[in-house]
Every structure is written in structure tokens, then in C-alpha cells.
Amino acid sequence: MNSNHLFVLAGIISTVSGLAIYNAPLNGAPNCPELFGVQTYANPADCNSFFLCTNGTLTLEKCENGLLYDGHGAVHNHCNYNWAVDCGERKADYTPLSTEECEYQFGLYPESDSCSTNYVKCIYGERHLAECTPGLAYDEKSHSCVWPDQLIPYCNPEAIVGFTCPTKVPKHTASAKFWPFPRFAVPGDCGRLITCVEGNPRLITCGDGQLFDSITLSCMDPDEHPQWYDQKL
């Protein structure tokens, strides 16, 4: 949406019962640029709110505490976490509305002060415990789950993955073929493998319906090795 549209939208606001509603022209046509569907547009004066068009009806919506609008991704009602939004020249209010469990009504936080494979997701001020993908640990700086070796010395990759990488692997083995990033099978787990990066283990999930082949040390589609797949079943 161009700046002319934004100025038109901003200039026709009227407030009814606390909700900003936009007056339609005398001919009854909507003021939204699109007549059908749902579209959102940044409020050039405020990063905490945005314009919402729903089938031609225009309203001004406000992001929940801890969220801001940028038009990219959405945690709740078209708004994203405040730390993930670049407001540019738009003004933003970062005042938290805290509860006993959460700083902001919406946010991501570490579970504790120690390295953890879990993290806290706050929704309307309530604490919800979430799990990282197996083999990952929560990083407070990036607000995401990362490889534990990226958090050394805060995290111990061997403790999280449950594996110690060898300093050498026998030649002419499948693991040696992947050196300097040797791979290893996970006992009792057909969907994952371990790879060593600079001497630290990483747990890799095959995904997409693939299974790990302990012979080739690779993730494969079941139809690529039907005999092996039948044995796993």
C-alpha cells in the first residue's frame, strides 16, 4: 500500500465506542483499497496499531501488550513480538503490563537461569511451557532454539544430546566418509542421527517422512530402500 493510501486511511477515522471505524463515502463504496478479503496496513503514526480491512470494512486495531505491527509474520491478530519488529519512524510504546508470571502479556522467555531445552511462552499474561526440537536449547538473545554448541560454555552439548564425539574414527567406515563432520546412529531411533561439528554433537531430525539408514548414515525415503524399511517396521 502506498503512502497516499495511508494518508487517506488516517484522515477518515472516527471513533465509536472505543473502536475506530472509518466512514464510507456518500455513494456507499468502502474506503478500503480492496473490496474483498482481509488486508492489513501499517499505521504511519503508531507501531502499536494497524489498519484492518475486512471485505471493504476498515477498522483500527491495537496490538496486545508485548506485540507490535510490521506486516511480517503474526503471533496474534496480525502482530509480532516487539523485539522482532522494526518500527522505523513509527512511534512505539514498550511499556510492559506485567503479571506474576510474565513481563509482557505476550512474549518468549527462558525457563530458568540455566541451560534448558524448554522455554516459556506468555499468552495474555499466562505462562505456557514449550519444548525446543529435540537436540536444541533455548537462546534468550535470539528468542529461539539453537544448537547447544552455539551456547558454550552456557550449555553442555554432550549433556543435551547424550553423546560424546570421538577425536578419531576408524578409516574405511561410513562415519569416516563424512569427516570432519562424522555421523553416527542414534540407538533405538530411526528418525534421527548425530553429527559432530568441531567436536560437539548435534542431534539431527530427518523429517519429511524420511528414516535414518544406519548403513549409509543418511536420511532416506522409505521407497528408496523398501527392504530396509520393512525390517524397521
From TrEMBL:
InterPro entries from the entry? Chitin-bd_dom (IPR002557), Chitin-bd_dom_sf (IPR036508), Chitin_bind-dev_reg (IPR051940)
Which key words tag this protein in UniProt? Chitin-binding, Disulfide bond, Glycoprotein, Repeat, Signal
Note whether Glycosyltransferase occurs among the keywords: no
Q: Which Gene3D superfamilies match?
A: Chitin binding domain
Q: Which GO terms describe its cellular component?
A: extracellular region
What is any Pfam family matched here?
CBM_14
Q: Does the keyword Signal apply?
A: yes
- The signal peptide here is 1-18
Under the heading SUPFAM superfamilies, the entry gives: Invertebrate chitin-binding proteins
Domain Chitin-binding type-2, chain residue ranges per copy:
29-89, 99-157, 162-219
Q: Which GO-annotated molecular functions does the record name?
A: chitin binding
**What is this protein's record name?**
Chitin-binding type-2 domain-containing protein
